User: What shape does this take?
Amino acid sequence: MSVHAKPSIVVPSSLDSFSCLTTLTVGDGTYHLYSLESAGRQLGIDAKRLPQSHKILLERMLAREDGEIITKEQIAALAEWMKNGGRSDAEIYVYANRVLLQDLTGGPLIGDLASMRDVVAENGLDPKLINPMVSVDLVVDHSVIVQASGSPDALKKNIDHEFRINRERFSLMKWTGATFNNVTVTPPGFGICHQQMIERLNPVVEQVHDDQGRVILSPSYLIGTDSHTTMAGALGIMAYGVGGIEAEATMLGQPLSLVIPEAVGVRLINRLSEGITATDLALRITELLRKVGVVDKAVIFHGPGALSLSLADRATISNMAPEYGATVGLFGIDGKTIDYLRTTGRSEQQIAIIEAYARAQGMWAEPSSPDPVVTASVDLDLTSITPSLSGPKQPKERVELASIADRFWETFAADSNTVPKEAGPDRKAAILADFRHQSSRAAIPVAKTSGAAGQLRNGDFVIAAITSCTNTSNPDVMVAAGLVAKKGVELGLTVPPHVKTSLAPGSLAVTGYLKNAGLQPYLDALGFNLVGYGCTTCIGNSGPLLEGISEAVDDAKKDGKFRVAAVLSGNRNFQGRVHETVDANFLASPPLVVAMAIAGNVDRVVRRSDAYDAEGKLKPGVTQDRLGLGKNRDGRIVFLEDIWPSGAEIETTVRAAVTADVFREANRDLSGPEQWKNLPVPEGDRWQWDVSSRYYSVPPYFQNMPMKAAPVRDVIKGRILGIYGNSITTDDISPAAPIGRNTPAGQYLIQSNVPIDDLHSFGARRGDPRVIDRGAWGNVKVQNLMRGVASRGSATIYYPPGTFESAQQMSVYDAAQRYMEDGVRPVVFAGKEYGTGSSRDLAAKSPRNLGVGAVIAESFERIHRANLASMGVLPLQLPEGMTLDNVKLKGNEKVTIEGMDRLTPRCSVSVHIERDDGTVLVIQTRCRIDTNLEMTYFRAGGIPVYVTRKIIEVAGNDNETGRRLTG
Assistant: This one.
């Protein structure tokens, strides 16, 4: 097999209009940098007072100024942003210098790149014109499924299963690492992508050569196809999630376009109290900032409280940025950053460069650092943080530990319409109390529960997962989990047989320090055996519940009176995501996950302080049967306080167990397991497509792709494909969950001769649009609000041309095919925060493939809005104060949107809605294509085809010219 050399990256030299290029000597090396202090003097600002995010934006523009794409006027606009109190409508362009991919969201991108090579070759050019121009790390981490758990051989069984069902996908990924320049692939089994990024992959300060041969130092500007790329913000770098569409363009040399973001400063004061975890703090910040409103904004954590936090604690907070809605959550660089880099095995020369660069550029944080100039500011006292969980449906739904049962029952009652809306407060309270009293005693038999007969009650935890997303980068909470397990086991506590427990660390280093501390055997004793290194429960890779549980619960749920729960240490708890049987999902710290697993039910009052009043009497509503986590060998009730470790105990254990040797050993051999090493990979510069594959196929927009974009088609008397409510997530629009046999996608796969047991998941099959498009708006919990839609999931009403009468209910996919045959462009309506959640480009690609002309919503989340625009689907925002309820849609209306080829960024767009009574409602919406570059992509029909056309156009028949342009 031919293996391409991985050349060092060369970037064009800057025009340097502000004459700020200077040198920096570190040890024996001399480097160049674009001085922010020098540029700031000429711009009339104190660059030290720019927020960390905007310091990086300024540097990126100074370093890549070319007078055409990045101009001195744009650089000046950033200075004006600061002078205007952190506000500006100016559009700027920046070049990211690093891209992070994971296998689920990065998989379709790889398919696009392979398809681009085909299109280029079919036009008589060298397929190697398609090559990344920035450093790209592909981490294969989202494919492990918790098929086996609670046993010593769970890890081996899950790895074997992972390779059996992902062989085809992994082959393409291995080929990608071999054939594309500047791409490094981390095989399965090494951990979650964002934890790998902070532990070993990100240099913090990048070194590239410009075309004058100089070594340029720049802060890392990282974008990733994982929304939790934001974790790297803890290192003081720009890091955030984008769709695979934007990542694809960045890889191929395109800049990112953005309106200069607002910055919200979060000034942290004091220190966390004894017994409080970084997870508790992250959940409080999520709750707080959702109320403040930080969508599309940069959040800057500063102040004495920020300096007091460990790097790992900062990572927990930065990682939750998508949950609080921000683009990034950034900290400064300081001594704790340096300590972390040294512990995780960075070289002393690299560490010296990072510190010298940060000090030279005013990015070094210390007590005397001035507060940054921000658009808005909020203070948070760390002593106010209390033990918390979040749920049962959204990360922003923080709940005090003492109130988890109340939250569960209130939500359960609301979902089952038990409490009439018109009832007064006293009547509502009485109905809720009766509902809780009756339902808490409801039990269902389970024929087999982990090998033992038993019963399930409402509120039982059936999943307790220490999963890799947010917390397993943090030794403090992972060691705390081990210590809770140790103390619990020593007292004789056990986990009830209905709880499926699992441990999926974010890196091999976690196993190393848990072993050093002697804590893994205690976790094993409670069933928290190692199940894999990667994203599991949080992405829906929970695997099956313990035997008999799903069947029993699904049958009991039919009357709406039964509900079980999950507790996980991740960051996503949307309904239908963790497991389709589980309706209540709570986010918690790893030690609290262990404690909740032991408790076994949300109704347990686990703290002594929440059970008894000052006189030692049971508090109102607390009954004897709900007390504590369980009983010790002597029959005494054990409370959380009895097994919760002290801060000093955690610190002592971490200091002894978490060493640089642990990280060095974890990263010593990255060649992958034997299954990866033995994986055959086709030779050649073009992928050999298998027509029988249902994991990868050439996307529709590359099939017979015209070399010139046609004008954008207006929506003329278009039909409504769906009406959706508030907080519709990208999981709802494009699920990642297992594919059910009775779904449109499942039926398609079965008809394609795929065995029922191998249907796999939407996440794994994202490289095949034929499968993914059949799952559009197909989450089992999604309700299409069109009149007449009788079921949840992928369901809509198809209206034949010219009619207003109710027609046939069918899948969204089938209706879209009918509309395309009719020559009709459908539209979608939605409520607030449309497109929350993961940076999932398929949630924009599928609407494009299904012919959707526009999505009209009350508001959008940033990534999804940009993805829609960048795939040629028009995002329109309803005017302030107008809601879906105001519009009063039935779903049979005809919608007209004209002039779509003449739009400008953020312009007003008239939407004409023709009703069945002959009246027409005209709404002045706002075009949410926010920048000129996004508009260019929109008019081209999407980034993938735009970039491909551009490469072909520029290169022509001169392959050498093409190579210079594309890497």
Remarks:
- The chain has a mean pLDDT of 93.
- Residues 728 and 834 are 5 Å apart (CA to CA).
- The longest strand covers residues 715-723.
- The chain has 35 helices and 35 strands.
